[in-house]
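Subject: Glycosyl hydrolase structure
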Amino acid sequence: MNYTPRRGWFHSWHDFDPAHAREDLAQIAGLGLDHIRVFHLWPLLQPNRTLIRGAAVDQLVQLVDLAAEAGLDVLVDGVQGHLSSFDFYPEWTRSWHHRNVFTDPEAIEAQAELLRVLGRALADRPNLIGLQLGNELNNLVEHNPVTVAEVDHYLDTLLAAARDGLSTAPPGRLVTHSAYDAAWYGDDHPFTPEASARKGDLTTVHPWVFSGDCARRYGPLSPQVLHLAEYGVELAKAYAEDVTRPVWAQETGAPEPHIPAADAPEFARATVLNASECAGLWGVTWWCSHDVDRSLADYPELEYTLGLFDSSGRPKPIAAALADTVAEVRAKPRPAQPRDLALVLDCTPATRSVSGPGGAYFEAWMWLRSQGVRPTVVLASHTDDADYLSARGITDLVRNP
């Protein structure tokens, strides 16, 4: 579960209340879920380029400890950054002090130091999954122009800093980064599929049904929507150099009106079951725990209804559906056999939108899936590599007509 505090949304970090957090976490654990992803706010953690507030770091550590009490593991996102249509920048990056957060050397080093500090503070927590650079950092390119090479340098620098911060942690702690769907589907977007699939300890995907207007284009319970998370996992595998690299479906949810409330339980069940058929799936993390209270202004409409619990803390029908589905998967894991048939993806950075909703490749893959075929994805550059195909268990190739 991606944890969104019920009272005050992420503004609750201004006056963090452990009792409120404990109540929220108990509700999440009560659904049978086993982990959360949490987000502090960058301006509160690092209000000056050379000041990281110890009190704010302590709040984050306390939340991780509260999650442990509830039986939940935790992934911590470091630089927020972007959350639910709002961007949170410290003032030292803005207006008279504007710095490009991706390219300014001092801004990069400040973010690196924040990740080192967070890693050191959390390294000994037994329920820590790991440290992620931040939530969908590629949303910030709108105001911070950057090239592919500069993104690669930025990610490499911050990933190294996070690893340094976690250097004393027990083995197995993850260091990751995340991007929204433009990294996979956006023509010439500076965050690339290769960066997502090759940097960090695993690949994260955020297959949202509003990307490319998917749900409105095909219908809320269409094969294209119900298999979207599964497709995102298989697409991510194609760009990885390590054929055993895990993929984490880290954000998926049922935003109204794209997914009407009446369809949300079926959507949730199908999304999790279909994704669980992917070999190498690390996990699924639903967005999100609690609705945004309508007393808070100026959110896009869909943000107010994404929770499994409403803003009063009452579970919605989708919560029961997800809990039942999780229990089903745990009781009888679905087979995740290698997929021996692959649809060949032949695109360039300038044409990668063919693999997104509405694109010719996307529609061809979904047509195969609707016919009962379980295809994976292979890049055209790998089709003559017999060792690579064998390692992935691919025996048949289909070229997109």
